[in-house]
Amino acid sequence: MIARWFTAPFIEREPLALAGIRDVFRHTSGEGYASNWEAIRDADLRGEAKTIGLPVLVIAGTHDLSTTAQQGRELAGYIEGARYVELDAAHLSNIEKRDDYTRVVLDFLGEKMTDDERYEAGMKVRRAVLSNAHVDRSLANRTDLTTDFQNFITCYAWARSGRATACRVTRAVSLPSR
Q1: Helix 132-140 and helix 115-130: axis angle, to 10°?
Q2: pLDDT number for residue 63
């Protein structure tokens, strides 16, 4: 699997990173891993992808054998206005080309919003999905340890998910009844 996930130069250059990944893989349920692959293999969401009318970033690895760059280009082509970026990596480009990957994602997320606008947009989505009562409790229970994280997820996770209906639905489905 490692040879499908990473390019040969990365495998040679990063033995410690690969040792950690091998360890994670060794401790992953074989049945769970196989079930995940079956679900991905059987999912055809091309029709749904065409309905996304919001900003989307598709990142592919030039040398990815599992989810090819061609598939990444096709996915981006289904979504009007999607941004496509190809990195000189294999499947796990977020590890293999972490600096490039991080820059691309942060550039995408760093749209022309001020920090206050991003926070307000995220708070609006949090309240719509979680309920005012839940968000108010969460804010009231912030500590010095959790305040920065709360602000971060509000600005980046919630503000971004507000633009993707599927993300909002997924988040709402997993919540206990209010």
Answers
A1: 120
A2: 97
